[in-house]
Amino acid sequence: MNRFWTWRWPIALAVLAALLLGASGCASGPVRATSWTGLTVVGDVLYAADLTQIQALNAADADSLWAFPEDPEEDGRGTFYVTPAVDEDHVIAASQMPPAGFLGQPRNVVWALDRDTGSLLWHFDDAASQYVEGGAIGGGVFVIGNSDGNVYALDVESGDLKWTFETGHRVWATPLIVSDTVYVGSMDRHLYALDLADGWVRWDFHTQGAFASTPALRNGTLYVGAFDNRLYAIDAETGTEVWRFESGNWFWGGPAVYDDIVYAADVEGNVYALDADTGEEIWHRGLDTPVRAGLTLSEDGSRLFVSGQGGALYALETARRGADSWRPVESEGQALSTPAVNESIVYEALIYGQHRILALYVENGGEVWAYPNVVEE
Amino acid sequence: MFDFLAYPMANLILLLYNLLGQSTIAAISALTLLINLLILPLTLSQQRSARKMQEFQPELEKLQKKYANNKEKLAQEQMKLYQEAGINPLGGCLPLLIQLPIWFALIGAIRYCIPTTPLEVFQFSQHIYKWLPGVVGIVPLQSTFLGMDLGQPPNPTQWWSYSLPILVLVTSWLQQKLLTPPTVADDQSQAAAMNRQMQIMMPLMMMFFTLQYSTGLSIYFIVSSLIRIGQYFFVQRGRDDEQSGSKRQAQPKKRKQ
Question: Which residues 128-157 in chain B show a CB within 8 A of chain A?
C-alpha cells in the first residue's frame, strides 16, 4: 500500500466523516437555530420574532416602528423564533444565543421590552435549554415553558423568578392563563393546571400522547390536542375528561373555538369541525398538505385560516363545511406558525422563503404587503 | 442526506422501545446489537484481513527492498501477493466506511425520536410507520437517563454527562487495541504505522462526535465497542480451543511414529 495512504488514511477518514456530517445537516451541532417564527397582532401593531430581531411593524403597511436589537450585527441577541407575548406595557420574547467556543453552550434568554419603544427592560437567562413556542402574560406574571422540562414564572415588571414547575419532559406548548390558573401541556403527556401565584398543581390530566399545543377555552371547558391522535375536551375546574375525538395523526397546532364549534387540524392536514359539547364531527376537510400551525378564526367566526406546511394559506368558510372562501394563497417557503388576524387582515409567517411575513385581506386573500419587501433586480 | 436510513432506523427504535419496556437505553442498545449482527461478516473479515496483512508483512518488506526503484513493478507484485494470500487490502477500512452512514443516520434517528427542535419532530410525524404496533403517541421517547438528557450533547449543567464521551474513548481504544494485531515496539512497517494511527484516531473521532451530538449516540458507540470486545474474546477462545485440539490430535500420531 502506498506510504502516503498508510499514514494519512485515518486522517482522511476523519475529514470525510466531518464533510459528511456537514452534508447531512448535522453540522449545526446541538442547536438548530431555525424554527418557525411567531406573530402577534395587537391593535394596529404586528409584533414578529424575525430571525435576529423582534420587530414591531405597522400592521397596515409593515413600516418598522422599532426593532430589538436595533443593529443585530453590532449587538447580537441570538435568534428569535418564539411568539411574542404582549400586554399593555410589555413585549416579551425569547431567543437562543450561539455557544461560545467548541464546548460552549447556547444561552437561552427571555427578553422583556417596552411595548412603545422596544427598549430593553430586563432579561432572564436561567433556563438550560431552548424555548420553542412562547409565553403568556397574566396577573403580572409571565409564564413560559422550556425544553429543559421546566415551566418558569417571572415577575412581568422586574423579571424576577417567582416559581418554577418541573415536568417530566420538554415543554414546548405556550401556556394559557385564565384568571389565577395556568394551563400548560408537557411532552411528558400531562396537561397541568397550576396556581398562577405559586405554581402549585391543582390537577393534571394524563394521556397517551405528548401535549405541544395551547388549549382553547370555552364555557369552562378546555380543548386541547395531543400526539396520541386525540383531541380532548377537559373540565377546566376539575381536570376531568368531557369527551375525546380521535383522528389519524397527531394534533399539534392549537384548536380554535367559536360559538358551539371547536375547530382543529391534525398534522396530516385534516381539518375538523366538532360539536363543542359532545365532540361529534360536524364536518371535516382534508387539505393536501401537512399542517403544524394552529387554527385562527376571523373576528366574526366566518372564516377559518389554516397555514399549510407547503406555504399555502387556506381560508375555509365555516358555514359551508370548510369550502374555500378564496383560492389558497401559495407562497414560497414553509408556513408552520399560527396565522394572526386583526379586523381585516390575516398575517402568515413563513420560513425558508423570499418573504417572512405575508399580509392578506381577510375578505378576498388579496395581498396587502409582504415583508421584507424584496425588490428583484 | 441520510434520511432514507434515518427514518427506518427511527421507526425501529420506536418498535424496540415499545417491546423493551419503554426504555430508550434498551432500545438503542438493541438497535446497536442488530446493526453489529448485520455487519458481523464485515467485521470478521476486517479482523482476518488485518491478521493476514501482519503475517505477510516480512514478504511485503522483501518486495519493497527488491523493487525499491520500480514502483510499478512493486505494486504489481504486491497485488499478486495479496491475490495469492486471499487478502483484500481494503478489507480493513470497508467496515469503517460502511459504518459512517450508519452513524449519521443514527444521529438523525435519535433526533427524531428524542427531538430537541420542533422542526425535526414535525418532519418525523410524516414518516412514522403507523402499522407498527404501539407507536401511537410514543414520540417523544423518554429522554432522561441518570439525569442526563439523551437528546442533548453533554453539557456543564449535567457535568456527569461528560463521562459518556470518556467511556466512548476508553472502550473504543480498548476495542482497537484488541482487534488490531500486536506489533513490535520498533516496527516501522507500514501496517504497524497504520495500526498505531488507527488506535489513536478512531477513539478520538468517536469522542469528538459524542461531544458534539446527542448523548444517545454515546450509548451506540459504547455498546458497539463492548460487542466487538466480546466478539474478540469469543473468536479468540474458539481459536485457542482449535489450536489445543489440533495439538492433542498431533501428539498420539507422534507416539505411533
Answer: 130, 136-137, 139-140, 142-143, 149, 152-153, 155-157
Q: What is the ipTM of this complex?
A: 0.86
Cα nearest neighbour of B153 on chain A: A30
Rounded Cα distance between B94 and B78, Å, is 20
Rounded CA separation B210/A315 (Å) = 46
Can you read off the three cell numbers belonging to residue A244? Answer: 375525546
* Separation of alpha carbons A274 and A124, rounded Å: 40
> What is the DSSP code string of B147-213?
TEETTS--BTTBGGGGHHHHHHHHHHHHHHHHHSPP--TT--SHHHHHHHHHHHHHHHHHHHHHHHS
Distance CA B227, CA A204 (A): 43
Give pTM, 2 decimals: 0.86
What are the structural domains, with CATH classification, of chain A?
1-206 (2.130.10.10)
Indicate whether B139 pLDDT > 80: yes
pLDDT band at A24 (very low <50, low <70, confident <90, very high): very low
Q: Are A92 and A85 in contact (CB under 8 A)?
A: yes
B34 CA to chain A: closest CA distance, Å? 23
**A175 close to A145: Cβ distance less than 8 angstroms:** yes
A161 CB neighbour count, 10 Å cutoff: 12
